[in-house]
Amino acid sequence: MDVLKHCLTIKIEFVRFLLTVADVCQYKTNKKNNHQSKPYFDYNTLDTLSEIIFNTLQARRHLGKSENWNEVKRDLRNYVNMPDLEIVLSEIEVNDRYVPGIILKKKNSPYIYKQIADSTFQKNLSNLKKLLLPK
Q1: Number of H helices and number of E strands within the chain?
Q2: Domain containing 85: what range?
Q3: Which residues of 47-61 are buried (b: 16+ CB within 10 A; e: fewer)?
């Protein structure tokens, strides 16, 4: 009787193990599929700073200029389409340390609309470049 109980316990544990493996495989499959199908950016949902970055990138591509992140960053000031806003390239505070960044603020005012670090700008620029690819 003990041998039968022991075998039954092993079978139940093995079935649980197989179900766990199946759940993990299903989770990984769904995670990969969801990640691939979800676009990071959609032009209709861009915030003001991302829209300025996108317009700058689009204009530089149209003019045949370089799309290097540093050159696009320096050119942002030329593509602010709102007269009361300005782009300032400065150090910003991120997690108690100062890093190079981009600030979108109202002219002649200390109020900051949005600020991003250069590293975030580079990541966003890569994703915005994908929006410009032919479909």
Answers
A1: 4, 3
A2: 43-131
A3: eebbebbbbbbeebe
